[in-house]
Amino acid sequence: MEETVAMVAPEATEEQQIIVIKQLPIIQEQLYKVKSQVEAVVADALALEVTEDTVTEIKNKRAELNKMFAAFEERRKEVKKAVLAPYDAFEEAFKECITVPFRGADAELKSRIAEVEDGVKDAKRAEVAAYFSLRNTPKVWELTLFLSRA
User: Fold this and answer.
1) Fewest C-beta in 10 Å: which of 3, 45, 103, 115?
2) What's the pTM value of the predicted model, to 2 decimals?
């Protein structure tokens, strides 16, 4: 019994789709509320004059800025990980259910095709070699070299 996989057009209804996005990620952020504060802290740090006397103070200010940035960056990475978690799960299922079977079939068919084509080529080489060896022409040696390179 032959089974077929129904491929559904992108404009099909949700019930007909094989893959459906139920909800896009909604990220509630208030970055623009803190933007002015971040810019003020950065501007204050950049306004400091770096001299031999203030190097230690500037290094401390720089470390403070890096610490603040690291806290924001860590939260961004947490959000990204949370948003990507459903996609990563989907991608794993897609790989298992779709990619692996198709790629496996492609590799198997490629191997079978190559086997048949190589057999045909070998048979043709043998025919040509037999033809010229029966003729015992001086070009047989050149033909043999040519066929061995193919």
Assistant:
1) 3
2) 0.62
In sequence order, which residues have a C-beta less than 8 Å from that of residue 37 and are 6 or more positions away? Answer: none
| Alpha-carbon gap, residue 19 to 8, rounded angstroms | 10
12, 25 Cβ separation under 8 angstroms: no
Residues 6+ apart with CB under 8 A from 57: 48
Angstrom distance (rounded) from CA 131 to CA 31: 81
Is the pLDDT at 3 greater than 50? The verdict is no
Structure tokens at 74: 């860590």
Domain locations in the chain as residue ranges: 30-149
CA distance 128 to 123: 9
Q: How far apart are CA 141 and CA 148, in angstroms?
A: 11
- Residue 143: burial class (beta carbons within 10 Å; 0-12, 13-18, 19+): middle
d(CA 110, CA 114): 6
C-alpha to C-alpha distance for 84 and 90, rounded to whole angstroms: 10
| Length in residues, the chain | 150
Confidence bin at 15 (pLDDT 50/70/90): low
Query: Pick from 130, 129, 131, 123: which is nearest to 145 by CA?
Result: 129
